[in-house]
């Protein structure tokens, strides 16, 4: 058996979210038609790979993204609660530019410590659970490849930790667009490289791509 194991951590595809809410961990948010196309595109991209394990966050949008990948490899889809979205006090609220929850003074108390952050699940807690999920996927696919489908913020925090960057950051600068793959390569039990690809980039709306300028009325729903 090879001592090289590859774990692809994928962000889910676009979600049907007409009200522009930060949906967080709320149930009932499914992939849009475009999001389904993104999932299928990534499944096609990964079809030639030696994938032996596919696991997702328990949220619908993640499971729906992972399903075509699992089916393409004849695998049963597993779930891991550690891959879930980060907890956020603004869940269920709008969070756009100039028209969202930040305009209301009663919400300002949640913004006192951006280094933790004070509005949601601490970054270090995200690191612990995401590293646990990553290692579990590595063990399940040892010598082969695995896919974990999760959410933007936990994926970015995981990558930042592995690459030894500070965990607090500007959300606009996350390199983790919809349906992207952040790939961790292990030699034995040690991560030896991190890669990033966007197999469905041409399907991602311009205002939702990494580094895009925020537009009023088009919330990016950070951390989704």
Automatic annotation (TrEMBL):
Gene3D superfamilies: Phosphoglycerate mutase-like. Pfam families: His_Phos_1 (PF00300). CDD domains: HP_PGM_like (cd07067). One of its GO terms (cellular component) is cytoplasm. GO terms for molecular function: phosphatase activity. This is Histidine phosphatase family protein.
């Amino acid at each position: 058996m090879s001592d090289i194991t590859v774990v692809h951590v994928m962000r889910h595809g676009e979600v049907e979210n007409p009200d522009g809410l930060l949906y967080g961990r709320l149930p009932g948010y499914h992939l849009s038609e475009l999001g389904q196309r993104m999932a299928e595109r990534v499944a096609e991209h990964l079809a030639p790979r030696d994938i032996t394990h596919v696991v997702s966050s328990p949220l619908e949008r993640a499971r729906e993204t992972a399903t075509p990948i699992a089916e393409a490899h004849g695998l049963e889809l597993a779930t891991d609660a550690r891959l879930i979205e980060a907890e956020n006090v603004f869940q269920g609220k709008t969070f756009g530019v100039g028209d969202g929850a930040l305009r209301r003074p009663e919400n300002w108390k949640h913004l006192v410590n951006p280094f933790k952050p004070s509005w949601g699940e601490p970054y270090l807690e995200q690191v612990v659970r995401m590293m646990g999920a990553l290692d579990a996927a590595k063990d399940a696919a040892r010598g082969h490849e695995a896919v974990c489908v999760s959410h933007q913020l936990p994926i970015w925090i995981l990558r930042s930790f592995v690459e030894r960057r500070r965990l607090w950051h500007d959300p606009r600068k996350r390199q983790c667009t919809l349906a992207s793959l952040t790939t961790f390569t292990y030699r034995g039990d040690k991560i030896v490289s991190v890669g990033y690809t966007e197999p469905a980039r041409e399907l991602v709306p311009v205002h939702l791509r990494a580094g895009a300028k925020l537009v009023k009325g088009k919330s990016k729903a950070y951390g989704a």
